[in-house]
C-alpha cells in the first residue's frame, strides 16, 4: 500500500504493535534496484511487517549536488517493493517530513549531528553536512515507523557505522542489519547513480571494483603496507577518473589503519565521467 502521510504510517504501525507483530524499515531514496530488493527481501524474511520509505531527502544534499536531478521512479518502486512483500511504501513530500520553509536548511530544524570524528573523513570530507541530513531523516523514520529492525546496504559502509553509533548513543530501540553489496556480473556495485552513466561510463566505472579486488588479492599474497597497496590501483585509473579518496580504516569504528589486516575496510570514492561513485571491500 502506498501512503504519503506520517499519520497513515503511524495508524498502521499502532495496529501492528497491538497485534504483537515485529516491524522492519528499509529507508531508501527510491530509484530502487536489485540492491534495494535484497534489503526488502531480507526485511520481509525477518519481520512480520515491512515499511519501505521512498524519500529523496533534501537535507542530505549539498547545494551543488544532484538533489534536483536525482532519479525519481515512484510507480516502479511501488511495484518492486510490493512484489517482494513490503506492506507499506511510505513516500512523503519534503513538506510532510520537514514542514514548509525548513527543508533546505538545518538552521531551522532540530537535527542529529553525528560525532566529528566519524563525519570528518571519507564521504563527509567533501559532503559537508551530509551525515547530519542522513541521521536526521533516518531518526525521523525510526520514530515514525517504531521499527524493531532497520535494513541498510554495505555499499554505504560509512553511513551504516554512523547510524549504528547514533542508535547506540541515543538508545534507539532498534537493531540495524547490514546487507551485502549487490553487484552487476561485471563487478560494478549497484547504485541509483549508475543511471547517470552511459556505456563508456559503465566500463570506466569498473575501475572501482577492480581496484578493490586487486588490493584484496595483493593483501592475500601478504602485502600489508598501505602505500604499496594504494600504488597498485594507479594502473586502473585514466583521464575519465577523478579519485576522491582510497582509504583503509577499521571496519567497526572508522579509525585509520597503519597496516592492512583482516579488520580493514578499504573504501573508495571516485568521479567517473563526472558521476560520483563509491564502493568498498573488507579484506578478510
Ligand atoms: O542510503 C540512502 O539511500 C540514504 O542515505 C537514506 C539512508 C535512505 C537516508 O536518506
Question: What's the alpha carbon Rg, rounded to whole Å?
Answer: 19 Å
Number of discrete helical segments: 10
Q: Which geometry do the CA atoms define?
A: globular
Extract low-pLDDT stretches: none
Name the hetero compounds present. pantoate
Number of domains: 2
**Relative strand content:** 15-25%
Structural class: alpha/beta
**Mind telling me the CATH superfamily name of the largest domain?**
HUPs
Secondary structure: helix percent: 25-40%
* CATH architectural designation of the largest domain: 3-Layer(aba) Sandwich
Tell me the span between the first and last alpha carbons: 41 Å
Describe the sheet with the most strands: 6 strands, parallel
Question: What's the SSE blueprint?
Answer:
Blueprint: E1 2-3, H1 6-18, E2 23-28, H2 34-46, E3 49-54, H3 74-84, E4 88-90, H4 94-98, H5 116-119, H6 123-126, H7 130-145, E5 149-153, H8 157-169, E6 175-179, H9 199-220, H10 226-231, E7 241-250, E8 264-272, E9 275-282
Parallel strand pairs: 1-4, 2-3, 2-5, 3-4, 5-6
Antiparallel strand pairs: 7-8, 8-9
The protein binds pantoate.
Pantoate binds next to strand 2 and helix 7.
Amino acid at each position: 500500500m502506498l501512503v504519503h502521510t506520517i499519520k497513515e504510517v503511524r495508524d498502521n504501525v499502532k495496529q501492528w504493535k497491538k497485534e504483537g507483530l515485529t516491524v522492519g524499515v528499509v529507508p531508501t531514496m527510491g530509484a530502487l534496484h536489485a540492491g534495494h530488493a535484497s534489503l526488502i527481501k531480507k526485511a520481509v524474511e525477518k519481520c512480520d511487517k515491512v515499511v519501505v520509505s521512498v524519500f529523496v531527502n533534501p537535507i542530505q544534499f549539498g547545494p551543488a549536488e544532484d538533489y534536483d536531478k536525482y532519479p525519481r521512479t515512484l510507480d516502479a518502486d511501488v511495484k518492486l517493493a510490493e512484489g517482494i512483500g513490503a506492506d507499506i511504501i511510505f513516500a512523503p513530500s519534503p513538506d510532510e517530513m520537514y514542514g514548509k520553509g525548513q527543508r533546505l536548511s538545518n538552521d531551522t530544524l532540530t537535527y542529529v549531528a553525528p560525532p566529528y570524528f566519524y563525519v570528518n573523513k571519507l564521504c563527509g570530507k567533501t559532503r559537508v553536512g551530509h551525515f547530519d541530513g542522513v541521521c536526521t531523516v533516518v531518526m525521523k523514520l525510526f520514530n515514525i515507523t517504531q521499527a524493531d529492525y532497520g535494513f541498510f546496504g554495505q555499499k554505504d559502509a560509512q553511513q551504516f557505522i554512523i547510524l549504528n553509533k547514533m542508535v547506540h548513543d541515543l538508545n534507539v530501540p532498534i537493531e540495524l542489519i547490514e546487507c551485502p553489496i549487490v553487484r552487476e556480473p561485471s563487478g560494478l556495485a549497484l547504485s541509483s547513480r549508475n543511471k547517470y552513466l552511459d556505456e563508456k561510463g559503465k566500463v570506466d566505472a569498473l575501475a572501482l571494483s577492480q581496484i578493490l579486488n586487486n588490493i584484496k588479492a595483493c593483501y592475500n599474497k601478504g602485502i600489508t603496507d598501505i602505500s604499496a597497496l594504494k600504488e597498485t590501483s594507479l594502473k586502473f585509473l585514466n583521464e575519465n577518473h577523478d579519485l576522491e579518496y582510497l582509504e583503509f580504516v577499521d571496519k567497526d569504528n572508522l579509525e585509520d589503519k597503519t597496516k592492512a589486516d583482516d579488520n580493514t575496510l578499504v573504501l573508495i570514492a571516485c568521479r567517473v565521467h563526472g558521476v560520483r561513485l563509491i564502493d568498498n571491500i573488507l579484506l578478510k
